[in-house]
Amino acid sequence: MATSNNTYSLSVEASTSQLAKVRDFVAEHAERLGLSEKEIGNIRLAVDEAYTNIIKHAYKNIPAKPVEIELGSDNSQLWISIKDEGESFDVGAYNEPDIKARIKNKQRGGMGVYLIRKLMDNVQYNRSGHMNEIRMIKHL
Amino acid sequence: MKNFGISIREVENIRVLDISGELDAHTASQLENSLKSLIDQNEICIIVNCKGLDYIASAGLGVFMAYIEDVRGMGGDIKLTNMNERVYNVFDLLGFPTLYDIHDDESEAVTGFNN
To answer: In whole angstroms, what is the distance from residue A70 CA to residue A138 CA?
Structure first.
């Protein structure tokens, strides 16, 4: 793994009230790296979706649970790691959403993981002890 | 903190929701309540004007997914208009343009309802 030059971190509770703060945190640092407005927008959305999934699925909307966000970069990539201590995500069981069928069945959700994969260059899910990590990478 | 705003007006018997700010998992319930309230009153010709919308996450799109079938089943529609490029891009990534009536300008959606 390449050495990281700069690392920034943010600890928040798992709450949708923190979404704007989390998005602004990553956008601010992405901006400093000279990314385009479109790329910054993509990163904001990917992080929003990952954090929202943690709130809803890992912690099942139970408030005051910890989420750690870390962002780092080197010459070739920006990476964002989001860690939680909730239920882990079974990436193997995930299927791409059939939006048409979901609309027919009045279902919603299931789109976040798909969006994250579309928006970022590389996405990894790790489980270590009781900690889940989603690590999202954008090549610079 | 950035906000989400919503207001309702009437154009030729169509209810137009002007939404602004950031639509995410925190603010989606505001849009949901407004849509639900209109549908409960049998107001089923609805335009959502996204001119002031700066940002949307999938939780926002989920609101449209939850109600479009009901509204169309009642003979109405939810048409979306005036999205900026960033917002449209999210709809596009998920294939919404083939499933929803999306227009560049509100007047086109009004015409669509009248035809």
So the answer is: 14
Token digits for A19?
A: 């979404």
The answer, for A115 touching chain B at a CB cutoff of 8 Å, is: yes
Q: How far is A103 from chain B (nearest CA, A)?
A: 5
Q: Are A64 and A13 in contact (CB under 8 A)?
A: yes
Q: Choosing among A13, A25, A28, A45, which should be mutated to test the B contact, i.e. which has the most B CBs within 10 A?
A: A45
Are B14 and B44 a contacting pair, CB within 8 Å? no
3-state SS assignment for residue B80: strand
Cα nearest neighbour of A101 on chain B: B65
Is A111 near chain B, with CB under 8 Å?
yes
pLDDT digits (tens, 9 = 90+) for A65-124: 999 999 999 989 999 999 999 999 888 778 888 888 888 888 887 899 999 999 999 999
Residue from B26, B35, B85, B96 whose CB has the most chain A CBs within 10 Å, to mutate: B26
Q: What pLDDT, on a 0 to 100 scale, did the predictor assign at position A78? A: 95
Distance CA B112, CA B20 (A): 23
Ramachandran angles phi, psi of B57, nearest 5°:
-110, 175
User: Considering the entire predicted model, what is its pTM?
Assistant: 0.93
Mean pLDDT of B95-109: 96
pLDDT higher than threshold 80 for residue B14: yes
* Distance separating alpha carbons of residues A126 and A124, to the nearest angstrom: 6
